[in-house]
Amino acid sequence: MSKKKKSRFGAHNVGADVNRRKTESSGYGYLLIPKGTPLFKEKPTKGKNRVNLDIIPYIVSVDNHPDANSDIPDSAHKGNPWYKRPIWVHRSIGTDNDSVVCLKTIG
Q1: CA angle centred on 96, ends 93 and 102, rounded to 5°
Q2: Residue 87 counted as domain residue
Q3: Domain count across the chain
């Protein structure tokens, strides 16, 4: 009987990779952003408590956008400009209770 070759893949490799990714990036909600990446922090102008932002829309390129509404033709249908791309997140996944982006969000 031949001796079974020991696999190099295992939980210790996966755990090491997870730890490496966590040390190379900082958590911002459910996103992992590389350390050193500047984040936008709004600051109201002196004497005011509002911040004005210009939102630049993008053209929806998918047929199954989560904000598409068949009753509203100008909503997030393919070819229309829209201001956001919602993502669905699964929370408390695995032993580390991670949050992951739902694959239905991206296609």
Answers
A1: 25
A2: yes
A3: 2
